[in-house]
Amino acid sequence: MDVLKKLLAGDYRDPETGERLHVPVKSLVIQESLAGNEADLVKALDLPKPYAVVSDDHTHRALGLRVETALASLGKLIPIRLGNRPHPDDKTAERVMQEGEKAGSYIAVGSGTICDLGKYAAARQGKRCAVFATAPSMNGYTSVNAAITVHGHKKSLAAVSPEGVFVDLGILARAPKRLIQAGFGDAICRSTAQADWLMAGRLLGQPYRTTPFAFIADLENELVADPSGLLKGDRPALSRLIQILLLSGFGMTICGGSYPASQGEHLISHHIEMMPPQGWEPALHGEQIAVTTLVMAKLQDRILTRDTPPQLGASKVSAGSLRSHFGDEVGLACWKDIQPKLWDTERASRLNERLQAIWPRLKSEISAVRRPAAEVEAALAKVEAPRCYTAIGLPRTTFRDAILHAREIRNRYTFLDLAADSGLLEPERLID
Ligand SMILES: [Zn+2]
């Protein structure tokens, strides 16, 4: 809790710059139980009334009813109940905004979907919000973006940060097992994301920061050493996981982008969602990330155990290859976006010189902060999280395709690029 307390109080000094860091959350409470304190916690934020309390069938049963009952003591409420498994899409967001139109602020009670809908509706309507977490399932509670599907395309849209984030560990302990496993997946990807970001930073001279990792390191080491308690409702383990996820959200805010929490492993997951197999029932975000993190860890293992650096060649993708893979519209948008990471033979040879010069040091720098695939796999196994594409319901071809083409959707240089540019991206060797 120390790091979180310091961050909230504006007392955490950035280890890189020495400056005090600020985060937009005003009140963050993690306790064994919040029962009886709900109204006081919200009241202290001084949010405009009436409150619109957003929940779905599951989160209403878990905690929503309790929050509604408590907040009713502060005045008229607008309960917004979204039924069974609502989708975080434009249609549901419209419904929230319509029902919440007369509200002064939103109180979301839930995890990914409900939190995103509340934060997004608040941003669109210039309102404020707070969230009561019901599961440690993803790192979006404290982020300033919401994943909303618009016209069938999943987008990361601007949202407001909740001013209050309230966590009742007893509620988290009763969250569905899958949600806890997903949260562990979205936490352990820190390792592959940091390795990717660090590599791009050193090779291409892009900005890279250690701060978002510095404040997570101890918690992550403690959790990964023994994550099995997560499934037994072990409070210290659940507390560590939710703290890591909340800090991961702050890390993105501090870096002005998702760099510290989303690299190659997230690109593969995005590709799967962009081009899903027919009739696929999407797995939870963190379940997909568990599987794709393991693939990235294996790829990083393969490249980082080489004595000599990979030899980059001129980029092989073209506008034509992207259009034939993604279709005209998306293909051209990707083509535009990834221009900065495409190069000709001359640039490739300059990068090869650089790789040659930095290789031993780069390897040891990355190895110092990443977890080998065996360690990632063992940790995921301890929480029974998905580790194979079959566990998230994918055909092999879809998964192989996603590994091959994920790097084409975004201008983020990861080990997927380093491997592809040097002829070392062989999905079949990373899948089993
Ligand atoms: Zn994620």
Explained architecture:
The chain has a 6-stranded parallel sheet with strand order 1-8-5-4-2-3, with helices on both faces. It is globular, with a radius of gyration of 22 Å. Helices cover 51% and strands 10% of the residues. The chain has 2 domains: 2-174, Rossmann fold (3-Layer(aba) Sandwich), CATH 3.40.50.1970; 180-431, Up-down Bundle (Dehydroquinate synthase-like, alpha domain), CATH 1.20.1090.10. It has helices at residues 2-9, 38-43, 57-71, 90-99, 112-124, 169-173, 177-188, 190-204, 211-214, 217-225, 235-255, 264-274, 285-304, 319-326, 328-337, 345-367, 373-382, 396-405, 415-421, 428-431; strands at residues 27-31, 51-55, 77-81, 105-110, 128-133, 145-150, 153-158, 164-168. Bound molecules: zinc ion (ZN). The site of zinc ion has 6 residues, from helix 13.
What form results from the Cα inertia axes?
Answer: globular
User: Spatial order of the strands in the main sheet?
Assistant: 1-8-5-4-2-3
The low-confidence parts are none
Helix content: 40-55%
The termini sit apart by: 38 Å
Strand content: 5-15%
* Radius of gyration, taken over Cα atoms and rounded to an integer in Å: 22 Å
Number of domains: 2
Mean pLDDT: 96
CATH class of the largest domain: Mainly Alpha
Q: Give the oligomer, counting copies of the same chain as homo and different chains as hetero.
A: single chain
**Total strands:** 8
N-to-C SSE string, H for helix and E for strand: HEHEHEHEHEEEEHHHHHHHHHHHHHHH
> CATH H level of the largest domain: which superfamily?
Dehydroquinate synthase-like - alpha domain
SS content category: alpha/beta
